[in-house]
Amino acid sequence: MPITVLHSEPVASRRVIVVGGGLAGIAAAAALDDAGVSVTLLESRRELGGRASSFLDASTGELLDNCQHVLLGCCTNLLDLYRRLGVSEKIGWHRTVHYLDADGREYNLWAVNGLPSPFHLGFSMALFSALSPVDRMAMARAMFAIMRMGRSGREKLEGVAFGQWLKELRQSDRLIQRFYDPVLISALNEETRRVSCKYAVQVFQDAMLANRRGYVVGLPDCPLEQLYANRPCADVRLNTRVDEILFSGHRASGVKLATGEALAADAVVLATNHHAVMRWIPEHLRAIDYRFAGLVNLESVPILGVHLWFDRPVLKKSHAALFEGPLQWLFRKDAQGRVLHGVISAARSWSATPHAQAVEEFQTQLNRLFSRSGAKLVRSRIVVEKRATFSPLPGSDAWRPPAAPPDGGIADLFLAGDYTRTDWPATMEGAVRSGYLAAEGVLRAMAPGGAAPKFLVPDMPPEWPARLLAR
Ligand SMILES: Cc1cc2nc3c(=O)[nH]c(=O)nc-3n(C[C@H](O)[C@H](O)[C@H](O)COP(=O)(O)OP(=O)(O)OC[C@H]3O[C@@H](n4cnc5c(N)ncnc54)[C@H](O)[C@@H]3O)c2cc1C
Prior knowledge:
- 29% of the residues lie in helices and 22% in strands.
- The protein has 471 residues and is α/β, with parallel strands linked by helices.
- The chain has three domains: 11-50 and 224-298 and 393-446, 3-Layer(bba) Sandwich (FAD/NAD(P)-binding domain), CATH 3.50.50; 96-215, no CATH class; 300-390.
- A hairpin with a 2-residue loop joins strand 11 and strand 12 (251-257).
- Helix 4 packs across helix 7 (197-209).
- It starts with 14 loop residues before the first strand and ends with a helix.
- It binds flavin-adenine dinucleotide (FAD).
- Flavin-adenine dinucleotide binds at residues 19-25, 42-45, 50-52, 66-67, 69-71, 241-242, 271-273, 276, 303, 305, 385, 388-389, 417-418, 426-431.
């Protein structure tokens, strides 16, 4: 049985349907379009962007983001996609990471200009007075161990909980709360101690220890929706819901829309979340394609975002990580610092909390944080995304499917989405990587034996001291 149906016509005469216009679908469509394939991108909502997009606030008509989305300098593929879409200049870059304690005292991490990684952040880490000197020494020891183990070391720790590793490295509770939690809970949408060591280590290796530009914080200067105004391919159909995937024997042959219209295709890329994918694949086809077997094991974790309007400016800096909750991060959404966005990741306990009660708790936290300003909260809007991302728990890699069908699997059916096997956690960068990998798979299948283009952009190169220090 061949891996996919072999084709002999040129790719330009092929039609690929991409289902789902989140970042994975946008990336797959953009890459296939660049390769000359005829692509149709189908999205059920009124706009592209999926989870990383915006909605119209009915009460004010304002365009609000589902939730603040943050990228880092090390997100090489997301940045590549922004370049393709011509929106790179809409990302504002912030070279200082700001932290606030419960009383609003500020602490900062920043890099020394010109110093290569890993020394670039060393000076500000050594002076980071939010941690005791003993904790700073312990953190330096852990960072050194993380750098030494390299990529192969982190792969070996995929099945280990980061909490166990932190214990072995004698990292104190206060150090975990003030250093690891602000970074990891938001990056991985899971509790620090529960995540797979592989992904926790990756965050530090890629963002802080390899390249001096890796840690720099990127925040869109516009509502997320506006990042997708330039379409990734000519045929983008919004408000178009796919109801069914059509199969011809053991191959995907097209889709059926909610309107009843059928669209034929030479290949179908499913770029929705995995919950939708599971509904679409009939039992007898799941039985021949192992990609679907583990999806039920991926655990979804909620994220809470709250839009906050104050009667006067409260936050001068673009963002702040908060040492004490319930809100974990704040972002400034206007030039004055009057409009903020607060985020709680791994927000399991918040998804059933009545909004009025949640706002009361946030207000208590914010009153203490901004007590000197005397500001009043005049309006708020909470958005809880219950299935925000899957949890990168130890062992979860086994449940993540590759993009292309295995031998004997469902031919011409490709998967993209942050949950697929990208080696990245569920992030915008992971979603874009998945889209590029799916596009590479489609083109490999269309030109068997021929040279298929590569879309995946390499990670940032480790600088020479980081290279020398890694094993
Ligand atoms: C609240 C929140 C905060 C986050 N914060 C960050 C962050 O700060 N940084 C970061 O990097 N990542 C963040 N993420 C994660 C990031 O948003 C996701 O990893 C990424 O956007 C996933 O993209 P995707 O394309 O894989 O999936 P999705 O964005 O879910 O895209 C799937 C698309 O498929 C469409 N679809 C579904 N069913 C159908 C159908 N039947 N027919 C047609 N279309 C369909 C959906 O409408 C959707 O547009 C956050 C996520 C959430 C929810």
